[in-house]
Amino acid sequence: MGEMFDGMSRVKKQQAVYAPLMEYIADNRIHALSIKAFTPQEWARDRKLNGF
């Protein structure tokens, strides 16, 4: 979660997270990754929608 994701599409958010990890993905130090990237506003909205 962070302001850096504001205005980004879901794909752009994923690319922003993947970029610094590519070395680890390429040499299999990271095998699988699940990304859930939110702005603070999206996080607050999703928490309310999911009853948290």
UniProtKB/TrEMBL annotation:
Which one Pfam family would you cite for this protein? BolA
Q: Say which domain of life the source belongs to.
A: Bacteria
Q: Which InterPro entries match?
A: BolA, BolA-like_sf, BolA/IbaG_stress_morph_reg
Gene3D superfamilies to which the protein is assigned, alphabetical: BolA-like
Name the protein family.
Belongs to the BolA/IbaG family.
Xref: PANTHER family: ACID STRESS PROTEIN IBAG, BOLA TRANSCRIPTION REGULATOR
The protein depicted here goes by the name: YrbA
Q: What is the lineage of its organism?
A: Bacteria, Pseudomonadati, Pseudomonadota, Gammaproteobacteria, Enterobacterales
Q: Which gene encodes it?
A: yrbA
